[in-house]
Amino acid sequence: MDVIKELQNSDFFINPLPEKTVVTMAYVPFQNAVKLYSPEHGIQTGTMFPELNKPFMAYDKDGGKSDD
């Protein structure tokens, strides 16, 4: 059973943005799960959602990777 496909085809699926948007208003799109990490990988990365896995990479002022 594919839980993600079932959710996408159900009443629980939410459009990412409102149908009527207003100019100059900031919007944060709703997240609809497309795929999930395994529980083990989710614990290692801190999220079950690949779309939210944005590791922080420190760079120095010249654009090089920092050793700190």
Distance between the termini: 45 Å
- Total number of helical segments? 2
The portion of residues forming beta strands comes to: under 5%
pLDDT average, as an integer? 77
Which class best fits the helix and strand makeup?
mainly alpha
How can the largest sheet be summarized? none
What overall form do the CA principal axes indicate? flat
Q: Any idea what the radius of gyration is?
A: 18 Å
Number of strands: 0
Spans where pLDDT lies below 50 across 5 or more residues: none
The succession of helices and strands, N to C, reads HH
Proportion of residues in helical segments: 10-25%
Can you lay out the helices and strands and say which pair or pack?
Elements: H1 3-8, H2 39-45
Describe this entry's structure for a reader:
This protein is mostly helical and 68 residues long. It has a domain at 1-9 and 35-52. It has helices spanning 3-8, 39-45. The termini are far apart. The model has no long low-confidence stretch (mean pLDDT 77).
Concise structural overview:
19% of the residues lie in helices and 0% in strands. By secondary structure, the protein is mainly alpha-helical.
